[in-house]
């Protein structure tokens, strides 16, 4: 076993405050393939130079000598302004790392991750990558993964997968997967998972939008329909979604409410050309804002009396944004025990973590139950809520978990794992290990 703090004399210098440190003036060896990436390269260069300077003068601040390398398209997308679910998770992580004072270096690919790692092998605590890159690094035993033949590569136990879903998408298993939700809380019918819960906070984005008291919200009452695409309303696809246009029309008619949404066309033009026409609710019942920016989205969400889930997208951040703005969430349950519908352990729903909250915060409604959907919206109007953020989703809680992750002895974790598991993905399934059959 290679010693993590002895790279066979291949790295000169003592990488601790007060020691000699010979580093190049430029962090990145080659120019970026995409000029847009300068938005994340420049801050990384600045962080690197500050680290080099503080080490030379023994003036590093708390955690500054703890280096995190990030190779993730979701982080790069976030720094370029995108706001999808994975990007919201990434944005929270970026803020968390900054708050804790770590030196964070963003890279473009695994090759660049290795180049940066070789500059600071003893200071790099973890390397955050997209799930597929954790497998690709394991496959590259000559270039990426540290082995006897590649002693200056990245130790596999330092590589953590940044992954939105509950599956063990890492060669060492779920412990090495950073998750946005506490998937260990899910019911048995969902995918219970012991991934490492980092989580994300929506406090910053939520607080940018002023809370609107229920009596100050628009009349007639508005329901925000969580539909990203117009294809959600294609009749041929109704089996994939919780509510038909007739169901939504009934909600509007029974409650006098208005349906609001931001449904756009597919990002895949070829798919859009062959897509059947959507069957939208009656034109008098809804307003579709199309693709809108985050500020307007949060404003319209804050004006609503409830968010109506459509079954997809799964585990979206929108219900948490809604609850923070004082807007209840109607969560469609897609699967249940026909003989015992109230047995929550057999449920599968759009947001299984939000499903654990009680009314009046979250209303769990079985797919296709039109009357229950109408009743849920009426109850949401009759029983308004104040702003609600689970304690685990507050920034201080996330900072605590992040610090624990960075300070974990991952080498010891791998050694403990090896005592009982010799299979792929920490002996956990499903993990698509067959896609990377030459990893092990």
UniProtKB/TrEMBL annotation:
Matches recorded under InterPro entries: GT18_cat
Pfam families: Glyco_transf_18
GO molecular-function term, one example from the UniProt record: alpha-1,6-mannosylglycoprotein 6-beta-N-acetylglucosaminyltransferase activity
The Glycosyltransferase family 18 catalytic domain, residue ranges: 285-407
Protein name: Glycosyltransferase family 18 catalytic domain-containing protein
Species per Swiss-Prot/TrEMBL record: Mycena albidolilacea
């Amino acid at each position: 076993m290679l010693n993590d703090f002895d790279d066979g004399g291949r790295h000169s210098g003592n990488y601790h405050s007060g020691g000699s440190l010979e580093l190049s003036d430029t962090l990145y060896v080659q120019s970026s393939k995409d000029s847009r990436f300068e938005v994340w390269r420049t801050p990384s260069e600045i962080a690197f130079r500050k680290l080099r300077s503080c080490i030379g003068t023994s003036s590093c601040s708390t955690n500054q000598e703890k280096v995190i390398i990030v190779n993730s398209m979701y982080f790069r997308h976030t720094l370029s302004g995108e706001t999808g679910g994975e990007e919201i998770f990434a944005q929270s992580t970026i803020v968390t790392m900054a708050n804790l004072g770590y030196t964070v270096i963003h890279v473009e690919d695994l090759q660049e991750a290795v180049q940066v790692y070789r500059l600071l092998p003893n200071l790099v605590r973890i390397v955050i990558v997209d799930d597929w890159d954790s497998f690709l690094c394991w496959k590259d035993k000559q270039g990426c993964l540290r082995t006897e033949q590649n002693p200056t590569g990245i130790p596999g136990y330092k590589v953590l997968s940044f992954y939105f879903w509950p599956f063990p998408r890492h060669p060492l298993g779920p412990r090495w997967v950073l998750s946005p939700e506490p998937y260990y809380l899910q019911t048995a019918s969902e995918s219970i998972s012991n991934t490492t819960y980092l989580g994300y906070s929506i406090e910053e984005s939520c607080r940018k939008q002023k809370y609107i008291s229920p009596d100050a919200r628009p009349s007639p009452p508005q329901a925000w329909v969580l539909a990203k695409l117009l294809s959600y309303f294609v009749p041929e696809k109704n089996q994939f979604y919780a509510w038909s246009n007739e169901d939504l029309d009934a909600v509007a008619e029974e409650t006098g409410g208005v349906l609001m949404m931001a449904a756009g066309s597919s990002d895949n033009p070829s798919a859009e050309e062959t897509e059947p026409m959507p069957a939208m609710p009656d034109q008098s019942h809804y307003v579709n804002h199309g693709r809108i920016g985050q500020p307007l989205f949060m404003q319209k969400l804050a004006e609503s009396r409830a968010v109506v889930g459509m079954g997809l997208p799964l585990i979206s951040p929108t219900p948490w944004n809604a609850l923070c703005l004082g807007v209840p969430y109607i969560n469609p349950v897609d699967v249940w025990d026909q003989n015992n519908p109230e047995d929550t352990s057999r449920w599968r729903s759009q947001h299984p973590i939000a499903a654990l909250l009680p009314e009046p915060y979250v209303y769990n409604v079985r797919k296709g139950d039109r009357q229950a959907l109408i009743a849920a919206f009426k109850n949401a109007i009759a029983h308004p809520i104040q702003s609600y953020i689970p304690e685990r989703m507050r920034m201080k809680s996330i900072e605590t978990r992040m610090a624990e992750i960075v300070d974990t002895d991952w080498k010891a974790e791998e050694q403990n794992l090896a005592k009982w598991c010799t299979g792929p993905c920490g002996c956990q399934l499903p993990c698509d290990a067959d896609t990377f059959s030459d990893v092990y």
